Amino acid sequence: MKNGKNQILCFGEVLIDFFGSIKEGFIPKLGGAPANVAIGLKKMNYPQVLFLGKVGQDLFGRFLVQSLKKIEIDTSYLISSSRFNTTLAYVSLDEEGQRDFSFFRGAHEQISKEEVEKVDLRRVRILQFGSLTQTNEICSKATDFLIAAAKKNKVFVSYDPNVRLPLWSDYSYLKSVIKQTIQKVDLLKINEEELEFLTETRQLKKGAAKLWKDNLKVLIVTLGEKGAFFKTEKVEGYIEGEKVKVVDTTGAGDAFNAGFLYKISGCIKNGNLEISGDKLAESVQFANRIASQSVTVKGATDYIF
Fold first, then answer.
1. What distance in Å separates the CA atoms of residue 178 and residue 198, rounded to the nearest whole number?
2. Alpha carbon distance, N-terminus to C-terminus of the chain
3. Which residue positions in the chain have pLDDT lower than 50?
């Protein structure tokens, strides 16, 4: 992958996750689903990882820029805003490591179409993004433009909606946004709760069939400790999860994405996924392993594998 289209571009939110509680205090860590995926890919030594997003010109924004650069993520497309503050999220954990989010919305929602028009996609192999840049008209236009430009440049487009309900005032609109976006992408990764939200069923095969569109190359439903279900036009299957002691589930889906994209990246040619059923199952199993490791420590990106 030294030449040609070997870059992975992660687009969307990079923010500060404050972990803890009001009683015990909060510890700040780098967060944001696309940024977590980018970090995971660099942990696996993927050669060229780029991040496209927006932060404020504040101490949090400076910390995020420095953190991404420190692990050699290309921040050429990371926008620094003097108008908007860096997005913040407070994450409180229950006894089982499940999360409760409170958001202070910021710069990530203010990425404009004009700001993403300068992105050079000619050497990008994979575009990874989520729904947090689809919550208003400004960033939705930017997201739509980037998807269309990616398809024009034969980029494999990976979508993890990563639904955060507090950021949406109209759940029906949220569903329509996600379902419309599914028709434009190559890979859809959702979790079990999102499957039920979008299809009103937790039956994997029934729900996957409802969401499936002919443009999709792969659909994956992650099931936490139970593993993951995958579907293509020709095959479908289930891979069991690995048993670990859960400390914090924050970023598990992002770790899964990083592992899966890393494994399939070599099978993507000019925007198409050329992969056997066995290789696909192996890739899901690897992604499960990375996700399992991620939940054994606090924070979204402090895992070791």
1. 8
2. 23
3. 1-2
